[in-house]
Task: inverse folding
């Protein structure tokens, strides 16, 4: 995965803010030209000016870039409404100010040699995978041999299907309650696919138990795999251990999702 140091803080504004369904929204935020170099997997942190609660900035993956006449004018965030900040975010309207810091973190590895990849997204975990698929297809790599495995608790958690369809890849959907696609965990069709195919890379983002299972499948089948980890973050500066993960090569020294991630090689993580 790639490392980037280019973050920039700006007070910018909401371009639009729309519900996807009762639990998920997408928001477009104006941004400066530093985002021309944003890489899939990177994230931003947000704060609503004038709001004391929550005090801490909240991290969100870059879901897509918003372009006008080939120029980047904004970024899109896909968010799930879970608490104080995300609830306030649903009430923001075009023109409202927003404090944006980013792009932060490393990103997924993209290579023209990767002709057959798997995107594995659990619920809101698909947020960074759409930017990734955009970048891969802009790199002139055809995704027709690739698969997107989208999992969720119910059909409401299966997001942005039409975008994935536009990449002409194969989509496999699973839900815990069977309300859409196959009933069960997203790792089941992934594991089945891997028995007949040797992909060049698996990219995954979602809840920790899903990432652990994806890492096991990838490591057992010797398939390269990168995981984007969305832990709870407090300081966002590597100071509080709130986002610590352990890496095999660190002999007990913790890595921080906020400064060493959010993307990690599945072979190097201890869950
Ligand atoms: C690198 C990174 C990228 C992220 N990208 C996205 C994204 O693209 N879209 C998105 O919707 N969310 C994303 N998240 C999670 C997002 O940051 C949290 O949902 C958000 O901070 C919640 O803020 P809140 O004030 O609304 O909720 P809070 O009041 O802070 O929390 C509400 C509840 O959600 C739980 N919670 C908070 N954060 C997380 C988390 N990361 N994982 C599991 N449970 C959590 C809390 O424990 C609490 O129970 C990302 C997190 C990280 C670290
Ligand atoms: S959030 Fe404090 S160390 Fe990462």
Result:
């Amino acid at each position: 995965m790639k490392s980037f140091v280019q973050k920039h803080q700006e007070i910018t504004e909401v371009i639009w803010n729309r519900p996807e369904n009762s639990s998920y929204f997408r928001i477009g935020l104006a941004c400066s030209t530093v985002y021309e170099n944003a890489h899939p997997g990177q994230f931003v942190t947000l704060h609503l000016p004038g709001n004391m609660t929550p005090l801490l900035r909240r991290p969100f993956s870059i879901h897509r870039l918003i372009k006008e006449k080939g120029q980047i004018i904004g970024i899109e965030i896909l968010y799930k409404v879970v608490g104080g900040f995300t609830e306030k975010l649903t009430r923001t309207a075009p023109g409202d100010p927003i404090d944006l810091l980013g792009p932060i973190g490393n990103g997924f590895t993209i290579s023209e040699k990767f002709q057959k990849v798997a995107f594995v997204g659990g619920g809101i975990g698909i947020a960074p995978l759409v930017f990734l698929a955009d970048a891969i297809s802009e790199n002139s790599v055809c995704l027709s041999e690739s698969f997107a495995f989208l999992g969720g608790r119910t059909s409401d958690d299966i997001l942005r299907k039409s975008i994935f369809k536009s990449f002409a890849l194969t989509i496999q959907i699973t839900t815990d309650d069977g309300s859409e696609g196959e009933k069960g965990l997203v790792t089941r069709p992934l594991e089945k696919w891997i028995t007949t195919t040797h992909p060049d890379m698996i990219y995954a983002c979602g809840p920790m138990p899903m990432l652990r299972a994806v890492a096991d499948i990838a490591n057992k089948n010797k398939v390269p795999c990168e995981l984007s980890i969305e832990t709870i973050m407090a300081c966002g500066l590597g100071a509080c251990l709130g986002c610590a993960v352990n890496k095999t090569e660190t002999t007990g020294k913790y890595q921080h999702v906020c400064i060493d991630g959010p993307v990690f090689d599945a072979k190097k993580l201890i869950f």
Residues 8-104 form a domain with the Elongation Factor Tu (Ef-tu); domain 3 fold (CATH 2.40.30.10). The chain has two domains: 8-104, 117-230. The longest strand covers residues 8-19.
